[in-house]
Amino acid sequence: xxxxxxxxVIYLLVTFCKEFICQAENVFPPTSFSEVPNGDMYQxxxxxxxxxxxxxxxxxxxxxxxxxxxxxxxxxxxxxxxRFTNTKRNDTGYYxxxxxxxxxxxxxxxxxxxxxxxxxxxxxxxxxxxxxSSGQAIxxxxxxxxxVPFPKSISWTRNQIxxxxxxxxxxxxxxxxxxxxxxxxxxxxxxxxxxxxxxHSDGLEMxxxxxxxxxxESGLTAVPASIVVGPKNVxxxxxxxxxxxxxxxCNARPLSSLIVRWFRMVNGVKTEVIDSIDFLxxxxxxxxxxxxxxxxxxxxxxxxxxxxxxGDATPVTANATLEVHGEYLCGVLRKLGIMHVRxxxxxxxxxxxxxxxxxxx
Length: 361
Prior knowledge:
This protein is mainly beta and 361 residues long. It is built from two helices and 31 strands. It has three domains: 33-117, Immunoglobulin-like (Sandwich); 119-220, Immunoglobulin-like; 221-361, Immunoglobulins (Immunoglobulin-like, Sandwich). Strand 16 (170-172) and strand 17 (178-180) form a beta hairpin. Residues 29-114, 231-323 form the Ig-like domain. Residues 1-24 form the signal peptide.
C-alpha cells in the first residue's frame, strides 16, 4: 500500500515537473517583428491608411501605439493595427508600435506619415501689373501657396496658351518662377497665369493669380549679359540614384549671342563642367541648368556660372556651394530609430531628427 502511494506521488511530481519545464521552455518575450508599420511616404489629405505591426510571444503580446513618442492608444492584444480615417494635416508625425508581455517589450522603428495637401494660392483672383523696358528681363515670382510637399508640377500660360518649351526667351526656375528674357514691345500687355499640381494629393491642381506685363521701347539694340537668377547654396544628404540642379538664368541682347558656361573648383583648380556621366547641361536650355547626377560627397565644392556675349572679354559670374554629406551616417541613425532622410523640397533632402519633423515647405 505504501509503495502504491509512493508511486502515485512520484508520478504526480514527474508530471508536474514536466508540465512546469514545458511551460517554462515555451514562454518568451517579443524579440522581433514579423510585420512593421510602413511609413516614409505621403498620404493624401482625406484618405485612409492602416499601420500594422505583428510579433510572436508567449504570453500573447499586447500592442500600443505612439505618435512623436507619446502614447495615443491603450494596450490590447487586438491593437496591432492603427487606422487613419479621413486623414488630417495634424496626423503628420512619426509613429511607433510597442509590443509587450509580462516578460518584456519591443519597440518598432518609426514610420513617418506625412499628410499631403495644397491650399489655394494667395491672392488667386488678383491681377498684378508689372512693367519693363525692351531688351530687359523680368521675374514673375511663383505666388505663395501652402502645399505639402512643394508642388511637383508647375506650368505657365501666356494669354491662356501654354508657353513653348522651345522658346528660349522663357524659363521656369527651380522654385517655379517664370523668367521672361529679352522682351520686346510685341510682348507687351500679355497675361501670364501659373498652375500648380500636387501629385501626392490625388493630383490636386490650383490656378494662381495673373500677371500683366507691359513692355516699353528702350531703343537698345544691344544689352550686356546679366545673371537674372543665379545658383543657390545647397546642402544635401547623399541619396543613391537621385540628382540635383543648379541654375543660372541669364539675359542679354541679342539672346542668341549669349554664352553660358559652368565651372567647378577641383583641388583649387577652376575646371570647366561639361556633359558627362556625372553632369548634364541641356543645350536646348542654353546651359541654364546644371544637373548633377547621382550626387555624392565627391561632388561637393564651389560651382561657378559665367555668362557673356560672343566677343566680350570679361564674363559676369555667380557661384554657389554644394555640400553633400555621406548617407552612411543617416543610415546608421535611421536603423537606431533616431533619424530619417526625407525630401523637403523639389531637390533638397535632409537627415532630420524625428522630433523636429516640419512640413512648411
